[in-house]
Amino acid sequence: MKTTLILATFLAAVLAAPSTIHPRANLQTFTGALGGIAATPVQDSGDAKRPFEVKGDTFVNAGAALQRSCDQQFNACANAANGGDATLSVGDCNQQKTQCDAAGQDAAAKATGAAAANATASA
C-alpha cells in the first residue's frame, strides 16, 4: 500500500514537471546555394545562455548566429570560385551573401519577436 502510494505520488510529480524540448529546426531561412553550397544551419544549442548554434559555435543572439552562417557560406563559395569552379565568381558569392544577410535579418527579427512573446506568455 505504501509502495503504491509513493510510486503514484512520484509518477504524478514527474508527469507534472515542466519539460523543455529543444527542437533542432534550422533557423536559417536563406535557401540560395550557388555551386550547391548552402548556408550553414542555425539550430538551438540547448544552452539557455547561448541558445543558437552554428557548426559547433554558440551565440547569445540569433542575429550573430545567422551572420556566421552567411559568412561560412560566402567563404565556402569564394573558396570554390578561387579554386577553379568556372561556374562561380567571387562577385556572385558576394551578391549571394548580401541576400543571405537580408534573409538573416528578417529571421532574427522573427526569432526575437517569438522569444519575447514566449517570455510574456510564461510570465
Write structural notes for this entry:
Helix 2 (62-82) packs antiparallel against helix 3. By secondary structure, the protein is mainly alpha-helical. The protein has a 3-stranded antiparallel β-sheet, covered by helices on one side. Strand 1 and strand 2 (52-54) form a beta hairpin. The radius of gyration is 21 Å and the shape is elongated. The protein has one domain. The chain is 56% helix and 7% strand. The chain is built from 3 helices and 3 strands. The relative contact order is 0.14. Residues 1-16 form the signal peptide. Keywords: Signal.
List keywords for this structure.
single chain; 123 residues; mainly alpha; 3-stranded antiparallel beta sheet; 3 helices; 3 strands; 56% helix; 7% strand; elongated; signal
Task: Summarize the helices and strands and which ones pair or pack.
Layout: H1 2-16, E1 43-44, E2 52-54, E3 57-59, H2 62-82, H3 90-122
The DSSP helix count reads: 3
Strand content: 5-15%
Query: What is the number of beta strands?
Result: 3
- Mind summarizing the main beta sheet? 3 strands, antiparallel
Instruction: Give the rounded overall mean pLDDT.
Output: 82
- Identify the overall geometry: elongated
Approximately how much helix is present in the residues?
A: 55-70%
Over all CA atoms, what is the radius of gyration? 21 Å
Reading the helices and strands in chain order gives: HEEEHH
Signal peptide: 1-16
Keywords: Signal
A few lines on this structure:
With 123 residues, the protein is mainly alpha-helical. Helix content is 56%, strand content 7%. Helix 2 packs antiparallel against helix 3.
